[in-house]
Specification:
alpha/beta; binds adenosine-5'-triphosphate
């Protein structure tokens, strides 16, 4: 079966800085796949390029068998691929409900009314805070809102960029449980994380990204027990 997302020999640069230098990976329908790697390895650049926010120098990105290169970000969302960006980037002046509405811009009002119910069931804390402005919410609540907003487009593939960043351990556990539950309900997930241990525990497969290229790949379990990965990313 063809992969849901297939990235081949991707090269991306910012002026003279070569951030991604020949990255290739696949994601099959139903999987959780994680990209782990140190600061600056090119993880966010990879996700932002897949989302259409950055234009690659070369390489291919195929989603559901069609190329995404050169397609506008909102069209990519329409095709079923959503990004929950690093640092959440919620609209701080807008309420929870308004933020979720923004996430549903590719869908009809009737679809959004139904999806928002699912989001509130998944994140009861958002329902309690529908009218609260997003900027006044805690980091964990903002992460839930950012994930809820991405889910409003009903993506087939959800890309999460560092969802655990800056969160207390108990909230990290909660976010990872939600990731697992979303996947159980049919959403394929591409997870970028600095918390390699949590990411590899939840992932079917992982790719290690090192200064712009993939240095290793395997099942989440194998990478979790790999000596090099343990030394470099799991604190020995
Ligand atoms: P982190 O975990 O710290 O977010 P990352 O693996 O996501 O790191 P990227 O953010 O993709 O890494 O950055 C890859 C490289 O590209 C880094 O050297 C970074 O400094 C550079 N870079 C990222 N964004 C820009 C930009 N807008 N302009 C110039 N260089 C950039």
């Amino acid at each position: 079966m063809a992969a849901l997302l297939s990235v081949r020999d991707l090269h991306v640069s910012y002026g003279a800085i070569k951030a991604v230098q020949g990255v290739s990976f696949d994601i099959n329908e139903g999987e959780i796949v994680t990209l782990i790697g140190a600061n600056g390895a090119g993880k966010s650049t990879t996700l932002n390029t897949i989302s259409g926010l950055i234009k690659p120098d070369s390489g291919s990105i195929d989603f559901k068998g069609e190329s995404l290169v050169g397609i506008k970000p909102h069209k990519i969302v329409e095709r079923g691929l959503a990004l929950c960006p690093e640092g959440r980037r919620v609209f701080t002046q807008l309420s929870v409900a308004e933020n979720l509405d923004m996430g549903g811009y590719t869908r009809t009002d009737a679809e959004n009314a139904e999806t928002i119910e699912h989001v509130y069931e998944r994140f009861p804390r958002l329902r309690e805070r529908v009218n609260q402005s997003a900027g006044t919410m805690s980091g964990g609540e903002q992460q839930m809102l950012a994930m809820g907003r991405a889910l409003m487009s009903r993506p087939d593939l959800l890309m999460l960029d560092e969802p655990s960043m800056g969160l207390a351990p108990i909230l990290v556990d909660e976010i990872f449980e939600i990731i697992r539950a979303l996947n159980d309900q049919g959403t394929t997930i591409l997870l970028v994380e600095q918390n390699a241990s949590m990411a590899l525990s939840v992932a079917d497969r992982g790719y290690v990204l090192e200064v712009g290229h993939i240095s290793k790949t395997g099942t989440g379990r194998d990478l979790l027990h790999d000596d090099d990965v343990r030394k470099a990313y799991l604190g020995g």
